[in-house]
Amino acid sequence: MNKGVTIAGGVILLLSVILTVAGGAITANSGENLENIDDSPQPFYTASEGGSTTFAFIDEDLAGSLAFQVLLDLDYVDEDNDGIVDNCNGFVVKVTDEDGVDVTENVSRVSCVYDEWTAEDQIHDGKVVHSDICGTIPELSGSDKCDLRAEYTVEVMLRDSNESQDFVLFDQDAYTINLMEKALGDLGALFGGGSLAFLALCCGLPIGLIILIIGLAIGGNPPQPVMMQQAYIPVPNAGGPHVIGQMQAPVGQMQAPVGQMQAPVSQMAPPISTPVQESPTSEFQN
User: Fold this and answer.
1) What are the DSSP E strand ranges found in 17-113?
2) Which of 75, 52, 266 has the alpha carbon at shortest distance from 154?
3) Whole-number Cα distances in Å, 118 to 77, 122, 123, 231
């Protein structure tokens, strides 16, 4: 087993598992937020007082604005099948500018259209869109001529008696922008979490597992041999010449005192025997 490779594979495998779980949790949470996104239009309602209300037209990006919608409390039905919500045409909407000039024909359009899809899933529960005001996006048939930062006063009256009728003014543009920001935030988290989990699952886990298996299969590094150095004590060449290159021991450590190394002459030299000489007298006797 190669310890280093095995540890690296284990770390990659563990991180991949953690990222997979984290990405899955982020994806699940983002998906739940998208399903439960708050799409209620009520925070963007402005209730009229005495059948009248005023709003300011603002288009900060100059890309056009969705229309303000006049909502009336009517049942969303079309019993006569004429494509118009019943009783919707019984009301009249009037729009005036800051100078009190009637600009209804220039800035508003009557709606009252009945739509089966809207009937099945009504965004304004119990309310019907009577008119659109200051819709300035050409692609959405918006051709109203509203001045930027101008204030407009909206009034609703009964067609037959000119009696004022309370209504709700809905800021459709602000509502749509708010809804898109929430949805885009959750979609970004959903995409990011899904991508994180996918990359960890398809790449991190297999790579970590492969490295771990390789680390377990291959051997580790062989042990390095240790060279033992032995002390070398030179033997002095007694009585001989000094050999060039021979290692000499430091003075005072390797050489013993002269009195300890050399024995006395009387002990080392053997006794000299004296030869016996024949006397001359013995020769004459023979």
Assistant:
1) 45-47, 52-56, 68-72, 91-96, 108-110
2) 52
3) 11, 5, 8, 102
CB-based burial of residue 106 (10 Å sphere; 0-12 exposed, 13-18 middle, 19+ buried)?
Answer: middle
Beta strands 151-158 and 52-56 are antiparallel
Torsion angle (degrees, nearest 10) of CA 12, 15, 16, 21: 170
Helices (H), the chain: 3-35, 104-107, 116-120, 172-199, 205-217, 258-261, 265-268, 280-285
DSSP 94: E
Q: Residue 162 region, left (φ>0) first, then alpha (ψ -120 to 50), else beta?
A: left
H/E segment holding residue 168 = strand 168-171
Contact call for residues 215 and 1 (beta carbons, < 8 A): yes
Fill in the DSSP letter of residue 203: I
Mean pLDDT of successive 10-residue stretches along the chain, which has 286 residues: 75 78 74 69 92 90 87 90 90 94 92 84 84 85 80 94 93 88 73 73 76 73 58 54 50 47 48 48 41
User: DSSP letter at 55?
Assistant: E
C-alpha to C-alpha distance for 263 and 265, rounded to whole angstroms: 6
Q: Where are the domains of the chain?
A: 3-36+183-217, 49-166
Judge contact between 167 and 51, C-beta under 8 A. Answer: yes
Q: φ and ψ at 151, to 5 degrees? A: -105, 140
CA geometry: angle 61, 190, 122, nearest 5 deg = 65
Residue found by looking up tokens 């209620």 in the block:
40
